[in-house]
């Protein structure tokens, strides 16, 4: 286990100089993964939640994380946009380190403003939707466009209306979240994240808090997004979604990646005992 | 046969039933009305209320001046209290232990000592410190201020009330901030908002719903607490009527004059509070727009 240390150092990987300032170097000069995790560790106090996660998600791919509760998949997802700070290993999004800046061998923690700057390119959808209850649906979608991207209100509104149209909720623009069903709220939350033109979307069990009849509408919106080429990392228990939409399926247990591969292959033919046990329970 | 036909035709018709009678309520109403009538009767017929004295003073210029002073002292003290209270609340939630402890000590001290003592302290501060200076800490000063000129008596009173209020407001604001779920902060941060923006745009507007009602309480309470400034001889409303009844010995009618004005201002503030609560209750289940929307929905498609 690695000790928590804000100024941890790494051996230089490939070329000694970081490419283009904060960009990490890709050995062999191959395409830059949208998400690259190398031996990512995370502890809450003495509890080690992630015990060295390795994972790569290429641009345009949909990666599904599967695993029993407590396996660390949500924590890993939250690490990707620095809602949780990792204690060891390295994690980068589109070739840029998450939460740190590297100068030579040394890592520096990013300031609040820099963390915020990097997060605006990563959309996140939560299990509990987390819409702002004091704003209407369109208000929720306009807020960060105006406050963070400095778009004009009319541009933000036009973009928001187009996105509401896309998730089938144009007629609900002036409704407050409490007036919407769970499925509608989650679709507004997806639209809110998309309004920032993210290059990566993170989904944290987006259908787990929904009534069964509303799961479909949210999965449909996510499927459309995947078909449009969005890079997505999805924590879910929806095996059917994983089989149809995902490019890779990663099965996690007890803070480790047990196996990863083509979703149809992993689901039909799991190699590890823990994967077999889990799938036999949920299928 | 006929009962079945009856049932068929009755299907879905509005129910016309005899409501439950509440004789106890009627008895209670009768008793309350009787007591109210007796109270009103005695107010009118008992000459000791001296309504003539009341009407002689209630609209006088000196009373209005006192009322005006009460209002601006209340406003100024509450302004200090709210601004400093928000700062203290944020300090108390700071990850820095020194900042957190300082805020805690402030609240501990100003809530733990009588406001009366605090008023006397600030009004007679010059007895403790004749001069304050700007300069090097523990070293020589460059600019000197006479405390009596820097803090006139009225400002001493405002400062005392405001600093005391800040301690209470800090706890009210903190409870409001704590009432907003962690998911709200995370969602806002995930959208790329900085911490300051998350606080201003997402957390505080939601916290306001929790903060406004107790703050209304504090404001109304402050309006009346200003009467403690009688100690410092500041001629706000209460001191004004006291000065009058000290010369004509008509305590009760003059205290009624003051009470009436306090009630008038309190009533106006309550109306303001109603609108503020409605403003910050937007989006909450059962709020006004929601009921309006539901009414529209039940009317069906046009």
List the helices and strands and how they pair.
The complex is a heterodimer of chains A (283) and B (302).
Chain A: E1 35-44, E2 47-57, E3 62-66, H1 73-80, E4 88-93, E5 96-97, E6 100-103, E7 106-109, H2 112-119, E8 122-125, H3 137-147, H4 153-166, H5 182-194, E9 200-204, H6 212-227, E10 232-235, H7 239-245, E11 248-253, E12 256-261, H8 263-268, H9 273-282
Parallel strand pairs in A: 3-10, 3-11, 8-9, 9-10
Antiparallel strand pairs in A: 1-2, 1-4, 4-5, 6-7, 11-12
Chain B: H1 2-10, H2 23-45, H3 51-57, H4 61-92, H5 97-112, H6 115-123, H7 125-128, E1 131-135, E2 141-146, H8 147-150, H9 153-178, H10 182-190, H11 195-225, H12 237-248, H13 251-280, H14 288-299
Antiparallel strand pairs in B: 1-2
Helix pairs in contact in B: 3-13, 4-5, 4-9, 4-11, 4-12, 5-9, 6-9, 9-11, 10-11, 11-13, 12-13
Structural class of chain A: alpha/beta
Shape of chain B: flat
CA distance, first residue to last residue of chain B:
41 Å
Mean pLDDT level of chain A: 89
The largest sheet of chain B has its strands arranged as: 1-2
Percent range for helical residues of chain B?
A: over 70%
Largest sheet of chain A, order of strands side by side? 8-9-10-3-11-12
Give me the Rg of chain A, rounded.
19 Å
- The backbone outline of chain A, from C-alpha atoms, is globular
Q: Overall pLDDT of chain B, averaged? A: 88
Separation, N- and C-terminal Cα atoms of chain A: 34 Å
* CATH domain topology of chain B: MetI-like fold
Number of domains of chain B: 1
| Contiguous uncertain segments of 5+ residues of chain B | none
Largest interface: A-B, 34 and 26 residues
CATH architectural grouping of chain B: Orthogonal Bundle
Report helical residue fraction of chain A: 25-40%
Oligomerization = heterodimer
Number of helices of chain B: 14
